[in-house]
Amino acid sequence: MTHAIDRRTILKTGAAALTLPLAAPALAQGKTEVSFFYPVAVGGPITKLIDSFAADFEKENPSISIKPIYSGTYQETIVKALTAHKSGTPPVTSVLLSTDMFTLIDEEAIVPFDDFIRTDADKKWLASFFPSFMENSQTEGKTWGIPFQRSTVVLYWNKELFKEAGLDPEKPPTTWAEQIAFAEKLTKRDGANTTQWGIQIPSSGFPYWLFQGLTTQAGAILMNPEGNKTAYDAPAVVEALQYWVDLSRKHKVHPTGIVEWGTTPRDFFERKCAMMWTTTGNLTNVRTNAKFPFGVGMLPAGKRAGSPTGGGNFYLSKKSSKAEQEAAFKFIQWITTPERAAKWGIDTGYVAVRGDAWETPAMKDYVAGFPAAAVARDQLKFAVAELSTHENQRVTKALNDGLQAALTGGKTPEAAMKDSQAEAERILRPYRR
User: Fold this and answer.
1) Which of 183, 248, 287, 406 has the fewest CB atoms within 10 Å, i.e. is most exposed?
2) Is there a contact between 315 and 102 (Cβ–Cβ < 8 Å)?
3) Is pLDDT of 6 > 50?
4) How does pLDDT run across 214-258, given as a tens digit for each residue?
5) What residues form DSSP beta bridges with 143?
6) Which positions make up the signal peptide (predicted)?
């Protein structure tokens, strides 16, 4: 997911973007044009970074023109990409959620990268990405997506508020029990009014993704690798949801109801919450806007430590010409070199997607001055694949609806997950032949 700085920040392209001939075979001057959907669902100067990468690539590759098209949220971008695919004019490449892989395959909208991996250098490049990120990029022996802006969920805390509460500002909670105990000390009330929450875990936008942190820690895996079966009603999943509900209803250290994804960082900046769970893609945003010392840590462990991975991959359009696909592949290799992966990670807060990016001088200097940047990378050893199935948006919605029903008090966690599993089973049964 962005999983990103503020996924509610959207740059609309409008319906006209769907009808324009985005993927013209070549420009008049003989250049191959690579149209490129990029989901502006993040805050900060992201478009400037992408535009800069495109311009630098064109200088080194004058026969190729890169045309970024900023396409809204991830959800809006997948709709636009599939609409463009069906109309016959899709972008040559797109950054879409890694979890969209099965949907894109089922729609016959993308081609695997395997046919473009020809040389030893190509094979080395493909093997350079963190294995955790490849779990949502490969299936049935083929590579369908290339990791680009990837993330995990991490814990942020306000060190000043820790100190005020008598907690060691350098030591975050490391277990579920500690998380509750810390949050109780960090929650402030003025009569019936809560002025400061101990913790916030967003439940809008990407509730399933934040929840997957809890289910992983409870020892549950939400889906099988084939993407055709879920385990929403497993006892460990119900246990994870009960823990989340109890933060607000039993322990009263977390807001009741739905906690907004987009406003949670702002609540953190305004000291309305002392700890928050959100994407590592928020790291640069927090560093820029928090007017107090803050910490970044791995998510507290339940039965085990863990977080889902999240974020976006590059995909190649099946309806593009071979020349366009080759040009896009060249750009994707170029933008994911160690130095550029490091730069992207430093400038955005996303996890640099390959191990050797962390050995570059720029990244080493960055981590030396800002050790929090390495937390998400270190958490990868405990990470699991983000929820991804066939009919992914519908199957994910089934879970999101159940989560929100439980968090708002409409259903018990057990009933909510039973209903979610029944709906997911109904959707996925045809894919188990």
Assistant:
1) 287
2) no
3) no
4) 999 999 999 999 999 999 999 999 999 999 999 999 999 999 999
5) 138
6) 1-28
**Taking Cα atoms as reference points, which of 176, 191, 189 lies closest to residue 272?**
189
**CATH superfamily of the domain spanning 153-308+387-431:** Periplasmic binding protein-like II (3.40.190.10)
Q: Which residues contact 119 (CB under 8 A, 6 or more apart)?
A: none
Q: Is 203 helix (H, G, I), strand (E, B) or coil?
A: coil
Inter-residue contact 279 to 153 (CB < 8 Å):
yes
> Do 16-151+310-382 and 153-308+387-431 have matching folds?
yes
Q: What is the pLDDT of residue 28?
A: 44
Domain ranges for the chain: 16-151+310-382, 153-308+387-431
How does strand 93-97 pair with strand 309-317? Answer: antiparallel
CA dist 353 and 350 (Å) reads 8
Helix (H) or strand (E) holding 423: helix 413-428
Long-range contacts of 395-398 (CB under 8 A, 24+ apart): 395/230, 395/424, 395/427, 395/428, 396/99, 396/208, 398/232, 398/423, 398/424, 398/427
Token readout for 148 is 């680009």
Structurally, what CATH architecture does the domain formed by 16-151+310-382 represent?
3-Layer(aba) Sandwich (3.40)
Considering the entire predicted model, what is its pTM? 0.87
Q: By CB neighbour count within 10 A (0-12 exposed, 13-18 middle, 19+ buried), where does 237 fall? A: buried
The answer to whether 353 and 129 are in contact (CB under 8 A) is yes
CA distances (Å), 330 to each of 61, 64, 122, 191, in order? 9, 10, 10, 61
Is the Cβ–Cβ distance between 8 and 81 less than 8 Å? no
- Cα distance between residue 353 and residue 336, in whole Å: 8
Residues 6+ apart with CB under 8 A from 432: 228, 229
pLDDT of residue 284: 86
